[in-house]
Structures are given as C-alpha cells and as structure tokens.
Amino acid sequence: MPALGTVHFMKPLHMRSPVAQGRRHTLPASEFRSLSPEDAISVFEIEREAFISVSGECPLHLDEVRHFLTLCPELSLGWFEEGRLVAFIIGSLWDQERLTLDALTLHKPHGSTVHIHVLAVHRTFRQQGKGSILMWRYLQHLRCLPYVRRAVLMCEDFLVPFYQKSGFRVLGPSEITVGPLNFTEMFYSVRGHAFMRRNSGC
Predict the structure, then answer these.
(1) Is residue 115 annotated as a catalytic residue, yes or no?
(2) Per annotation, catalytic residue among 75, 77, 93, 119
(3) In the predicted model, is pLDDT for residue 202 greater than 90?
(4) DSSP letter string over the chain?
C-alpha cells in the first residue's frame, strides 16, 4: 500500500531549529530489493559457505548466478542489513509442470512457473527466522507479478517441513539428482492467492 505522507508545517524563522552540520548519511537498517549482477559475488560467497559445508554442492555457480541476475533480476530478492547482504533468493521462469535438468540452467521468459533455485542466509544471521521471513516476502512479491501462477523448488528431505510452513506442498520425488543427492519437489500456488493480490497494493 502507498505510504502515508507526513505534512510538515512551516515554523516562523525565529522558531526554526538550526540546521545540523556534518550529519552523516546512514544506510537503511533493513532493506529488501531485487538483486543485480553487481551483487553476484556477495551472493555466491553466502551460497558457497551455506551449501558446500552441508552437501558439497552449490545450487548455482558464480557464472550461473550472474546469468540469472542478468536475465531475470525481478525474480530475485535480497535482504540487506545496513547495506550488507544477509540473505537472498534467486528464481527464474519455467514452462513445464515438473522440473527437469534444463530447469537448473535455463530461464523460460514465457513460462508462468517460478523455479526457486536457492535460498541462503549468511552464517552469522542463521537461526533467527530470516529464511522464513525472506520466503514470505518473496511470495508476496510474486503475487504482484501477473504472469506468475505458481512457484516450485526441489530440496532435500530434511528441508521439507521448513517449506511446508511457508505454504509449499509436496509434488513428489524429483527426477533430478546431483551426485548422491536426491530431492523432493514442492510447489506453491500463487494463482490460488489471487484474492490477496487484489488487496496487496500491487
């Protein structure tokens, strides 16, 4: 919804406070915005630390991060604290019911499904609920994109409850494997929340 403006009434000159000298310009304490290719290195550093230590594999390599942030930056969302990236999501469009190997590297501009490639939180900001908050903000963002009908992702079994709490439902085992890793495919119906889109200020 549009922010309410604040009306500033003019004071007589003799009652006005002196202008502060040397005031520092501070960054917003917390900011959500789409990512750009300039954010790619910060994104990859967080992703690499988050995933290599757990599974030994990164969902996206640095060139793939740059690829998606160039083609579809509007399908990404970063959380910045005082100008520092602390968590992010990267997605792209897909045009089939289920994910295939091509979905890992391709962006289908005419698709209506958002494939969420990765959600990662910086190690010093974990266990604070930031992943859930960021996903909620991201799904709110998707509701403002009229061409998006649903979101899909694949995750390891231990992460299924986390995504279920955000409203995702299980589609079944994914046909995609990465080395020894198997995944569960999940989906979230954005179209089913059209009533929320109409009342969200989009």
Answers:
(1) no
(2) 119
(3) no
(4) -PPPP---PPPPGGGSPPPPSSPPP---SEEEE---GGGHHHHHHHHHHHHHTTTS--SS-HHHHHHHHHH-GGGEEEEEETTEEEEEEEEEEE-SSS--GGGGT---TT--EEEEEEEEE-GGGTTSSHHHHHHHHHHHHHHT-TT--EEEEEE-GGGHHHHHHTT-EEEEEEEEEETTEEEEEEEEESGGGHHHHHTTT-
Specify whether 119 is catalytic.
yes
For the segment 155-178, what is each residue's pLDDT rounded down to a tens digit? 999 999 999 999 999 999 999 998
Active site residue 92: yes
Q: Known catalytic residue: 200?
A: no
pLDDT attached to residue 15: 42
Query: pLDDT tens across 50-105, in order?
Result: 887 666 678 899 999 999 999 999 999 999 999 999 999 999 999 999 999 999 99
pLDDT above 60 (res 1): no
> Looking at residue 128, which CATH number applies to its domain?
3.40.630.30
Whether 142 is catalytic is no
Residue 114 domain flag: yes
* 20 belongs to a structural domain: no
Range of the domain at 136: 30-153
Catalytic residue among 62, 71, 104, 106: 106
Number of domains in the chain: 1
Q: Which of 35, 69, 75, 117 is catalytic?
A: 117
